[in-house]
Amino acid sequence: MTLSRRSVLRSISALPALAIIPTVSWGANQPLRIGVIGAGWLGGTVGRLWVQAGHEVLFSSRNPDELASMARALGNRASVGTPAQAAQFGTVLLFAVPYAALPQLGRDLHDSMQAKIVLDACNPSPGNDSALSREAHTNGVGQTSAKYLPGTRLVRAFSAVDATAVESSAQRESEKLGVPLAGNDAAAVEVAARLVVDAGCEPVIVGELAAAASFQRGGPGYRANTSAPDLRRLLGL
Fold first, then answer.
1. Alpha-carbon distance 211 to 205, whole Å?
2. 83: which strand partners?
3. Quick one: pLDDT at residue 30?
4. Which end of the chain, N or C, is surrounded by fewer C-beta atoms within 10 Å?
5. Would you list the domain boundaries of the chain?
């Protein structure tokens, strides 16, 4: 199934855009520089698909040497480094780390992340009764992530799907996996939508960050791992 630029733009037309507009846009042919912060199961899978789609990706973790063999197998568009190096490298950043790590990463990477598009795939762990988890549950995960990653153009993306479902979708021609997106910046959501397509899935634009509650843990869209039409029905879109 081919997703048209017009259909995505229609979905995001109601979202407010920030004054800072990215140098890339939907339909642009040039590759993006993407920093993946947390190259585990999800971050590694999505990042690998982006490399295969032609983007330059720096995979990072606390132990970057452990990622070297993966990067070598992907070729010269893939590299590895620390989270600080990933934040400096990427025009777009994907956060796929334990949720408890966000406040410290927000402090450590603050200067490198300013005005960058951040795709937030992080979720509080089930049964975790920490102050941060309670805050995210009360205020919404999207708004809480934005608080701890200030100055970024945050989009909730890849937070409600499994890595295996993403990989399976990338290998088939139809019935693409619906990946819900929510953000307050229309231009950032547009770039996120492009990257969902480049990962072999179909974006489902839900609304602003507050609307991400519908696909955080406990919401109807969380781990639905279904096609975009079915996901839209689940979310009432």
1. 10
2. none
3. 85
4. N
5. 30-235
Contact 70, 46 (CB under 8 A): no
| Domain with residues 30-235, CATH architecture | 3-Layer(aba) Sandwich (3.40)
Neighbours of 41 (CB within 10 A): 12
β-pairing, 117-120 with 56-60? unpaired
Give the tens place of pLDDT for each residue, 123-180.
998 888 899 999 999 999 999 999 999 999 999 999 999 999 999 999 999 999 999 9
Q: How far apart are CA 14 and CA 116, in angstroms?
A: 21
Beta strands, E only, 24-77? 33-37, 56-60
Tokens of 63: 């132990």
Q: Which residues pair with 182 in a beta bridge?
A: 156, 207
Structure tokens at 79: 């590299």
75, 76, 79, 48: which is closest to 61 by C-alpha?
A: 79
The pLDDT assigned to 92 comes to 98
Nearest to 92 by CA among 40, 144, 129, 43: 43
Sequence-separated (6 or more) residues with CB below 8 Å from residue 82: 60, 62, 64
Residue 69 Cα distances to 43, 75, 80, 109, 135, angstroms:
16, 10, 10, 26, 38
Partners of residue 120 on adjacent β-strands: 95, 156
Give CA torsion, residues 18, 20, 22, 26, to 10 deg: 30
